[in-house]
Specification:
The structure is a single chain. The protein is mainly alpha-helical and 121 residues long. 62% of the residues lie in helices and 7% in strands. It is built from seven helices and two strands. Strand 1 and strand 2 form a beta hairpin. Helix 3 packs across helix 6.
């Protein structure tokens, strides 16, 4: 079966972004490869990247880069830490055209799906 251009495009982008991820995220993507589309996996990896970056910028996790993000740090997070991330995410604004927009609830829900403990590790 021939792959669609979109499938090939997101496979390539996923291959690029996964190089910046810690080993446990690489393993997660490998485990999900046969069950999720490259677009879904790419978005999940970007969601991990966003979460890890936020944790580092808030001083909740100390590491040199996302690539060296320790999986053990996830076990030490409080429920409040996670709630604060989702509050920050749902309040985040970005420019689309000439307008400021909030991230959609659908996007927030996808972040939740990607980061849900039973689906990640």
């Amino acid at each position: 079966m021939a792959l669609s251009k979109q499938h090939e495009y997101y496979e390539k982008r996923l291959d690029e972004i996964i190089k910046e991820m810690p080993p446990f995220v690489v393993e997660y993507v490998d485990d999900k490869w046969d069950h999720r589309s490259p677009l879904t996996l790419f978005n999940y990896v970007r969601d991990f990247q966003s979460f890890f970056s936020w944790l580092m910028s808030e001083g909740l996790v100390q590491c040199e880069s996302i690539r060296t993000f320790p999986v053990e740090a996830l076990a030490t997070l409080s429920l409040n830490d996670v709630k604060n991330y989702f509050k920050s995410l749902s309040r985040k604004k970005y420019e689309k055209g000439n307008e400021l927009q909030k991230i959609s609830q659908k996007t927030v829900n996808r972040h939740l799906s990607a980061l849900r403990p039973s689906s990640t590790i």
